Amino acid sequence: MTHNAYSTYQKQAITTMTRGEMLLALYDGALKDLSLAQEAFRQNDIFAVNENLQKTQRILHYLQTTLDDKYEIAANLSALYAFFAEQVMQANVKKEPALLDEVIKDLSALREAFAKADKSAPV
Q1: Residue 15 pLDDT more than 90?
Q2: Helices 99-120 and 73-94, axial angle in degrees (round to 10)
Q3: What is the pTM of this model?
Protein backbone atom coordinates (compact mmCIF):
# COMPACT_ATOMS: atom_id res chain seq x y z
CA MET A 1 0.00 0.00 0.00
CA THR A 2 2.79 2.43 0.88
CA HIS A 3 4.49 1.75 -2.45
CA ASN A 4 1.31 2.66 -4.36
CA ALA A 5 0.95 5.91 -2.44
CA TYR A 6 4.59 6.82 -3.10
CA SER A 7 4.25 5.89 -6.78
CA THR A 8 1.14 8.06 -7.08
CA TYR A 9 2.95 10.93 -5.34
CA GLN A 10 5.91 10.64 -7.73
CA LYS A 11 3.67 10.66 -10.81
CA GLN A 12 1.75 13.66 -9.50
CA ALA A 13 4.96 15.51 -8.67
CA ILE A 14 6.24 15.00 -12.22
CA THR A 15 2.99 16.03 -13.91
CA THR A 16 2.79 19.26 -11.89
CA MET A 17 6.40 20.34 -12.55
CA THR A 18 7.08 23.49 -14.51
CA ARG A 19 9.23 23.21 -17.62
CA GLY A 20 12.14 24.67 -15.68
CA GLU A 21 11.72 22.20 -12.84
CA MET A 22 11.54 19.31 -15.31
CA LEU A 23 14.70 20.46 -17.08
CA LEU A 24 16.55 20.71 -13.77
CA ALA A 25 15.29 17.26 -12.74
CA LEU A 26 16.62 15.82 -16.01
CA TYR A 27 20.01 17.47 -15.49
CA ASP A 28 20.05 16.23 -11.89
CA GLY A 29 19.23 12.71 -13.07
CA ALA A 30 22.00 12.73 -15.67
CA LEU A 31 24.53 14.09 -13.17
CA LYS A 32 23.48 11.50 -10.59
CA ASP A 33 23.86 8.68 -13.11
CA LEU A 34 27.27 9.99 -14.18
CA SER A 35 28.36 10.11 -10.54
CA LEU A 36 27.13 6.56 -9.99
CA ALA A 37 29.00 5.45 -13.12
CA GLN A 38 32.21 7.02 -11.85
CA GLU A 39 31.80 5.21 -8.54
CA ALA A 40 31.11 1.97 -10.41
CA PHE A 41 34.32 2.51 -12.40
CA ARG A 42 36.21 2.81 -9.10
CA GLN A 43 34.55 -0.40 -7.86
CA ASN A 44 35.26 -2.12 -11.20
CA ASP A 45 31.53 -2.87 -11.52
CA ILE A 46 31.23 -2.87 -15.30
CA PHE A 47 27.53 -3.81 -15.21
CA ALA A 48 26.71 -0.72 -13.10
CA VAL A 49 28.93 1.47 -15.29
CA ASN A 50 27.04 0.37 -18.38
CA GLU A 51 23.62 0.70 -16.74
CA ASN A 52 24.24 4.23 -15.45
CA LEU A 53 25.87 5.47 -18.63
CA GLN A 54 22.98 4.15 -20.71
CA LYS A 55 20.56 6.02 -18.44
CA THR A 56 22.61 9.16 -18.99
CA GLN A 57 22.52 8.64 -22.76
CA ARG A 58 18.71 8.27 -22.68
CA ILE A 59 18.39 11.55 -20.75
CA LEU A 60 20.72 13.35 -23.17
CA HIS A 61 18.78 11.96 -26.12
CA TYR A 62 15.51 13.14 -24.57
CA LEU A 63 16.97 16.61 -23.93
CA GLN A 64 18.16 16.78 -27.53
CA THR A 65 14.92 15.60 -29.12
CA THR A 66 12.73 17.95 -27.09
CA LEU A 67 14.56 21.13 -28.06
CA ASP A 68 12.40 23.76 -29.73
CA ASP A 69 14.05 24.73 -33.03
CA LYS A 70 12.36 28.12 -33.07
CA TYR A 71 14.95 29.32 -30.55
CA GLU A 72 18.45 30.14 -31.76
CA ILE A 73 20.10 28.41 -28.80
CA ALA A 74 18.53 25.05 -29.72
CA ALA A 75 21.18 24.28 -32.34
CA ASN A 76 23.99 24.97 -29.87
CA LEU A 77 22.36 22.88 -27.17
CA SER A 78 21.73 20.07 -29.63
CA ALA A 79 25.43 20.02 -30.55
CA LEU A 80 26.40 20.02 -26.86
CA TYR A 81 24.03 17.17 -26.02
CA ALA A 82 25.37 15.19 -29.00
CA PHE A 83 28.93 15.79 -27.82
CA PHE A 84 28.05 14.74 -24.27
CA ALA A 85 26.33 11.59 -25.53
CA GLU A 86 29.36 10.71 -27.65
CA GLN A 87 31.73 11.19 -24.70
CA VAL A 88 29.51 9.04 -22.49
CA MET A 89 29.37 6.33 -25.14
CA GLN A 90 33.15 6.42 -25.60
CA ALA A 91 33.71 6.25 -21.83
CA ASN A 92 31.49 3.18 -21.74
CA VAL A 93 33.04 1.44 -24.75
CA LYS A 94 36.66 2.25 -23.87
CA LYS A 95 36.08 1.94 -20.11
CA GLU A 96 37.73 5.33 -19.61
CA PRO A 97 36.08 7.24 -16.76
CA ALA A 98 38.23 10.32 -17.43
CA LEU A 99 36.09 10.99 -20.51
CA LEU A 100 33.20 11.79 -18.15
CA ASP A 101 35.01 14.62 -16.35
CA GLU A 102 34.34 17.27 -19.01
CA VAL A 103 30.75 16.10 -19.45
CA ILE A 104 30.10 16.43 -15.72
CA LYS A 105 31.76 19.85 -15.54
CA ASP A 106 29.89 21.25 -18.55
CA LEU A 107 26.55 19.65 -17.71
CA SER A 108 26.81 21.05 -14.17
CA ALA A 109 27.51 24.51 -15.58
CA LEU A 110 24.48 24.24 -17.89
CA ARG A 111 22.33 23.10 -15.00
CA GLU A 112 23.38 26.09 -12.91
CA ALA A 113 22.76 28.51 -15.79
CA PHE A 114 19.26 27.12 -16.34
CA ALA A 115 18.55 27.20 -12.59
CA LYS A 116 19.46 30.91 -12.49
CA ALA A 117 17.39 31.60 -15.61
CA ASP A 118 14.42 29.71 -14.17
CA LYS A 119 14.55 31.73 -10.93
CA SER A 120 14.58 35.02 -12.82
CA ALA A 121 11.88 34.01 -15.33
CA PRO A 122 8.47 35.66 -14.88
CA VAL A 123 5.82 33.37 -13.45
Answers
A1: no
A2: 150
A3: 0.85
